[in-house]
Amino acid sequence: MERLSITLSHFESFSLINNWTDVEKGLYLAVSLRGQAQGVLGNQPKDDRQNYKKLVQALQDRFAPSNQTELYRAQLRERRQKASESLPEMGQDIRRLANLAYPTASSDLKEVLATEQFLDGLHDSEMRLKIKQARPVNLNDAIQRAVELEAFYRAERRQREMVRSVDTEVSTREQRLESLIETVQKSLTSLEQEMKNMKRSQYRRQKSDDKGSDSKGKGVRKCFECDSPDHLFKNCPSRSNQGRYDVRVQTNGQNNDKRQVKGDESRNEGDKSNREEKHSRNIQVIKESGLYVKASVEGMDASLLVDTGATISVTSKVVFETLSLTCKYSLHAVKDELLAANGSPLEVIGRTRMCIATGQSKLEQDFIVANVNVDGILGIDFLSEYKCVIDIERLVISVLGTEHKLILEGMSTSYKISLVNRISMPPRTEVIVKK
């Protein structure tokens, strides 16, 4: 209907310029119709096709019936601002609907109705109140004020968004800092609790050790030698320093004379005549677990422990004192301290050089004379100097290419573990332990 009204208005203006008559206007209107409007022309009687008034009436009946005014009025009342629609576009559409809804009303009335509907269709209630307070005279005045207010509001919203973004960044930083502080506090609390638990555990352990050392019950095991609860008889330091051994001395054709020799006692009680005689001796002491080879030390049969963990070779104090009964050996002082496998210091007498016979081979070796529980120990110095090869599977040792049988002594399924130093380590820590 709107397009028909616009077209007819344009046609009327054009006909006035050219001073057309009604017959000429009918002819020009008929030849200018296109599409569905041309079909309306074909439906008219032949005599009415050049009649301008009847042709206009037919077009209005077809495209702008008078009974649609109620529809346009309803559309005008429900008209609201669309999401992507500008205020001038909305005002123009409301003006169109007002003209269609009230075709017979005066222009002033249409202007008032369009202005009221424009204000009611605005989304922003604050803008609506401000425009009403300004009392616009017509629709164009209301549209102009609405456009100005919209520009002001848009600039204000942009400024608020910038401030809000800055506030959001500051708030985010504060939240991160608070979260970090909370995490550190939790870690410190957990660490303090672990330290408290460790101190309590250490206190209980120390208290238990004190009670165990003070108690005299049957469950406390003590050393038979020095009555100390810290070790047993076999590990007693005083016993190790005394160095008691059972020594059997066998002379030619005579019965075995069993004597007890102490490491701290001298052998001056022996008979001088016996010292001058040549003896065939056989020394046998309590042995440690390990591999032994039968050898002759200065003519005396002995079982020597093959120990790859010992850096130097050692002979026992008993063997040295027994050999000293018949022959004098030069004994050199040793300044270095020797430690046993359990960390306890050994009583070192000195260093001497002896001859060892293994089979047909006679070898000379430097020995440290110390208070040990075996006849002697062949260390790395002996094994490397005489190119020794140990075959565990066959239980043989090769000395300078000659094989000798090894004897496996005292091997058991239980092993002794000695605690040299007590080290306490907090959980989740590393400690470099130095001797």
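The above is record 1. Record 2 follows with the same two-line structure.
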Amino acid sequence: MLLKTILSFVLAVVPAAAPATPDIPVAELRGRLTALADGRDITAGLIHVRNGTRQWSDAVGVRDLASGTPAVAGGHFRIGSVTKTFAATVLLQLTDEGRLALDDPIERHLPGVVPDGGRVTVRHVLQHTSGLHDYMSEPGYSTNRWRADARFDDYTPSQLLKVAFAKGPDFENPGESWHYSNTNYVVAGLLIEKLTGRPYGEEVTRRILRPLHLTHTSVPGHRSSLPVPHARGYEPLPTTPPSIVDATDMDPSLDWAAGEMVSTTRDLTTFVTALIEGRLTSQASLTEMRRMREAVPLFRYGLGLQEFAIPCATGPKPVWGHTGQLIGYLTVAFTDGKGKSLTLSLNPHERDPSTEAVVSMATAVFC
């Protein structure tokens, strides 16, 4: 899902506070994260920054509110929609192998699965220009993840598509508009499985996780718990009086290829850096992924990639990657393609982290 409207904007276990690193504004970044924890915006915040060959990780806050155990920088978390970038990368690799083309109609590979599949293309799906309705926007499907009686329900991709297609398309002509829809990446996952004959998670593991040695990243399937260590995921609820729910454990099949994966800040930094530096696809495919179209005022969207303009004093600076949100977990993973990367995992507390704090951290890293 979108990261709370992108926060209104924008590993092996490593020590919770690594030594100060030249060319990385450690004191400023640590101060920004600490302020979020002290202000009860987050229960925990994890960060990984890369500048060339220099890397730095840190963590603030607690793993859980009950014990007060300090969070650790190598903690696992649910990455939400950053999963989409993994799925898109696999499909671009399959394009490189000649198994499909971006402008192939979905009907060619998944006959009878998608309404109007003769006009909806692979490109439309990856770029959110298909018009396919977002099943996650339907009442109960997003909120199920914190409801005690539904958080552990399991879902199949066909169930999710049935919910989406019951409403009809969001716009009539594929390609004419842009609308973020998790349904697109359920279709993407099915494409991967049809073309390879293997579960999409196995392909992500075989093609990306193993080659990059992302040993702390996983596709959980129906596993409801997180690997240790991890910070608990809490969500403030709009009740009277306000309340907070622990939504850490859940069956992530509701999100599937649109948002189920688990990772660490170090692993995500490695992934987005490798992708944008051209180590996972051909240059032609990377160019297609980075061919952006206007999405919302805050960002542009390519094929499984978001592009943000960081407000530097010398002018806007583009960065690429993706944001993610599952209840209890907010993720930011971006790189400028020139050696600088920033990955954040934030666990909301009494409110969402402020836009200004996140933007200031991105500015400190990239400007």
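The domain at 4-366 is CATH 3.40.710.10 (Beta-lactamase).
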